[in-house]
Specification:
This protein has helices at about 1-10, 40-55, 70-100, 100-115, 125-135, 145-160, 180-190, 220-240, 245-250, 300-315, 370-380; strands spanning about 15, 20-25, 30-35, 170, 200, 260-265, 320, 330-335, 340, 350-355, 365-370, 385-390. Strand 2 and strand 3 form a beta hairpin. The protein contains 11 helices and 12 strands. The protein has a 4-stranded antiparallel β-sheet, covered by helices on one side. It has a 3-stranded antiparallel β-sheet with strand order 1-2-3, with helices on one face. By secondary structure, it is α+β, with helices and mostly antiparallel strands. The chain is globular and about 65 Å long.
Length: about 400
């Protein structure tokens, strides 16, 4: 509050303080200011450690003891926001000054990932580290000199790397020593069953792979690799023939593999003009001055809110896919359509099913209630979801 009052008084800036940040309007741009306090992180780690001593639960992956999920998430969020994320941003800024094509390559790579509805499963930091590796370890090729070349290298790395058998070591600032690399490979080999499907190590993160710890899953990673392999072929053909249709095809998603498609109202999408092939509309607004200046709408994205609700409600039985750059479709893949034994803890979104006549026991079975789930998708997305399309042809191969 004091900072907001000072900015308004000394620099006549429009500010809106909230419980977590301060929004400042400057030159028609809104900046979000947050205060990082190292003591807050130390306090969070101390509380988690204290509770772990009582409960007897500890974890070395997070760098602190794990007790309750909420407590661990709180401490991990503070560590990422105040330590890991600023460090990563500094490294990427330094690399962008060293390699002129890196920034464009990052944007193209993020656009390609998102165009295939994979953006909920890949963090921005993960994609940036993959791109950084193509520039830092370009041998035996030259360092990419253009965004197109960098995108091809990124797709080739994604599709050809042995993610199951090898960690990807990104040597930022050349800070990794031979002993560090040996430690990474030994820890990866000994704990592979407990490591994420995509393991990326950096000088500040040798063991935990913090940007891929929770996602992507092995199924999503396999799909991304297959799509990347096909995209390499299309983009290589485009460079040889100059056929723009081949380039656009590399950024068009295949919707046939999704079990359910949630079509959204285009006028409800705040980023619809960013979609691949979308129409750009220039908006002329009267500039506001003096007392008329107000803070524009920020952090408003109903699609992201809807996805958060779907993930919280049905994340245990479904995976959701979306293009964050103005995508008008949400893809849904059921994790398991087979019947399972009745359990109180897993009854959510399920219905009882008839036992087989050949079954030797009368134990009740339950299975996913698809019809009820589709109705819930429509109800939860009222005003946003245009229609729900069920695709039975994709059901035989349930994930």
């Amino acid at each position: 509050l004091n900072m907001a009052a000072m900015l308004e008084k000394q620099f006549t800036m429009t500010t809106v303080p909230t419980a977590t940040a301060l929004h400042v309007l400057l030159n028609d741009c809104v900046f979000k200011l947050t205060i990082a306090n190292r003591h807050e992180l130390n306090l969070a780690e101390r509380i988690v450690w204290r509770h772990s001593k009582t409960i007897g639960d500890a974890s070395h992956d997070v760098g602190m003891a794990m007790t309750g999920p909420e407590m661990v998430q709180w401490a991990e969020h503070l560590r990422i926001e105040s330590v890991a994320l600023p460090l990563h941003t500094g490294h990427m800024h330094s690399l962008s000054k060293q390699f002129s094509a890196l920034s464009l390559t990052c944007r193209l790579a993020k656009r390609w990932i998102s165009s295939h509805l994979l953006s909920p499963h890949f963090t921005h930091e993960c994609i940036e580290l993959l791109v950084a590796h193509t520039f830092l370890a370009s041998s035996p090729f030259l360092v990419p000199g253009s965004g197109h070349c960098g995108l091809l290298r990124f797709l080739h790395l994604l599709s050809s790397w042995d993610w199951e058998g090898q960690p990807l070591v990104v040597n930022l600032n050349d800070d990794l020593k031979s002993e560090d690399k040996t430690e990474i490979f030994q820890a990866f080999s000994s704990q592979r069953a407990h490591q994420p499907s995509m393991f990326i190590a950096t000088p500040s993160d040798l063991r935990s792979s913090q940007w891929t710890r929770h996602q992507p899953s092995s199924v999503v990673l396999k799909r991304a690799c297959l799509l990347a392999k096909e995209a390499v072929f299309l983009l290589s053909s485009w460079l040889m023939t100059s056929d723009s249709q081949l380039c656009m095809a590399a950024f068009r998603p295949s919707l046939d593999d999704f079990h359910v498609l949630l079509h959204l109202h285009s006028h409800r999408l705040p980023r619809r003009y960013e979609a691949v092939g979308g129409r750009y509309v220039e908006i002329h607004a009267k500039p506001l001055t003096g007392q008329e200046q107000v803070l524009p709408v920020v952090d408003y994205n109903p699609v992201e809110e809807y996805l958060d609700i779907l993930q919280e409600t049905y994340g245990h039985c479904a995976m959701f896919f979306h293009d964050q750059y103005g995508g008008g479709v949400i893809g849904v893949v059921w994790k398991n359509l087979d019947s399972s034994t009745f359990q109180i803890s897993s009854i959510n979104a399920c219905k009882p099913c008839k036992a087989s006549k050949k079954a030797r026991t009368k134990i009740e079975k339950v299975q996913l209630n698809v019809d009820a789930a589709l109705d819930d998708f429509s109800i939860l997305g009222k005003g946003l979801v245009k229609r729900v399309e069920n695709q039975p042809h994709a059901y035989p191969q349930a994930l």
